[in-house]
């Protein structure tokens, strides 16, 4: 039991959060008077506190969308002085059988890559909430790749990878986007040019190129050639690009 006059430590705890649950819940003690939820460093909402039993809850379903999200709960006193904070353990939804772990993406990189744990029926890239393109899953099903250089343009872009597990459920993972620290050799590809029913897709580039690949509808279909002197490339595409869409 607490001795009269003894100071009770100000501590906040958080229960595990399963993706798809409505609320983050937990407990608080001591001089705690306010609790806030942060996701990926952004303040989301104030929690509702029950001072009778020292518990809180805060709506989170629309804000925590991936197991890779950084979720924190912060406890304050009545004057908004921070007393304690804790990290929320974010878990896959009950019964979910797919885990997606994207690698960090640096502006200017060709592709978003990552690992898959479980069966995925497909991979999609979303940038700022908008579908960008489909990706390709390795033959062993343990990794993925999505061409992204023309879609992720700023470190402030919100990027996510969405997969579909064996039961048809979508699984989302956030991608950490880093600013470019590119050297003069960094490869940048200009907008390629192609006219339907002609032989080659062509384009130009700057930096150092070691190879060129043609991807159609998220699938790598052919390698091409490039000329380091003129900084141009060409890939035969007549039999692969058959529609403007």
Describe the protein's architecture and organization.
Strand 22 and strand 23 form a beta hairpin. This protein is mainly beta. It has strands at residues 17-18, 23-27, 34-39, 42-46, 48-50, 55-59, 71-76, 82-87, 90-91, 99-102, 105-106, 111-117, 123-127, 130-134, 136-137, 143-147, 159-164, 170-175, 177-178, 188-189, 200-206, 213-216, 219-223, 225-227, 232-236. The strands form eight sheets. Strands 4-3-7-8 form a four-stranded antiparallel beta sheet, with no helix packed on it. A four-stranded antiparallel beta sheet has the order 10-12-16-15, with no helix packed on it. The chain is built from no helices and 25 strands. The protein is elongated. It is 0% helix and 45% strand.
- Let me know the average pLDDT: 88
Judging from the principal axes of the Cα atoms, what is the shape? elongated
Catalogue the unreliable spans.
1-5
Largest sheet: 4 strands, antiparallel
Instruction: Specify the structural class.
Output: mainly beta
User: Percent of residues in beta strands?
Assistant: 35-45%
Radius of gyration: 24 Å
Summarize this structure as a short list of keywords or feature phrases.
single chain, 245 residues, mainly beta, 4-stranded antiparallel sheet, disordered N terminus
